[in-house]
Amino acid sequence: MRQADLIKYMEELDSPTCARLRFEVSKEHGILPNEVRFLGRKAILICKRSERGEDFSVSQGGVNYCIHLENETPGVQSYVLLVDRENNFVAQTTARDFIRRMNGIAPRPSDDVRYGPYWWVDSEFNYAGSSSRNRMVDQPPWLNALE
Q1: Most Cβ neighbours (<10 Å): which of 32, 33, 62, 133?
Q2: Residue 46 is inside which H or E element, if any?
Q3: Are strands 77-83 and 42-48 parallel, antiparallel or unpaired?
Q4: CATH 3.40.1350 holds for 6-128
């Protein structure tokens, strides 16, 4: 199946009439703070850039939910879409490709009970570390002393 170019659909995705997964279902499946929206037979996990950095949190629950929809519904394609704070297109990949890119890296458990486990990724879907570009966590000073 040919992959959709989601940049063409940004205005439609941002529209209040775009179908969205109900908040209660998103909460139940650990999708928050991401959001699942639907365009025809496309399930799209929308992940906004973090408020204090250049990276994005991608919820394990959201990716799993989209892949489940793809597995259970013939013809459905699932995507992970990265957007900036103003909902402008940054990057996209399929949900399955996202899992391949994480290559067995365990998602980080959330400190906030409202959210499920997630991965931090950069704008090219590369794993961005254990925290939102927090150098003290991702590159502790003692690591720099090793040569």
Answers
A1: 62
A2: strand 42-48
A3: parallel
A4: yes
Containing 141, the helix (H) or strand (E) segment is: helix 141-144
CA 84 remoteness from chain centre: 12
Name beta bridge partners: 119. 58
Question: pLDDT of 80-137, one tens digit each?
Answer: 999 999 999 999 999 999 999 998 899 999 888 889 999 999 999 999 875 544 444 4
Ramachandran area for residue 40 (φ above 0: left; ψ -120 to 50: alpha; else beta):
left
Order of strands, sheet of 19-20, starting from the edge strand that comes earlier in the sequence: 19-20, 35-39, 42-48, 77-83, 89-94
Q: Is there a contact between 47 and 115 (Cβ–Cβ < 8 Å)?
A: no
**Domain coordinates of the chain in residue numbers?**
6-128
Rounded to an integer, what distance in angstroms lies between the CA atom of residue 145 and that of residue 147? 6
User: How far, CA to CA in Å, does 26 sit from each of 1, 23, 72, 80?
Assistant: 27, 5, 18, 15
The model's pTM: 0.85
Using a pLDDT cut of 70, give the percent of the chain over it.
86
Phi then psi for residue 5, to 5 deg, are -95, 95
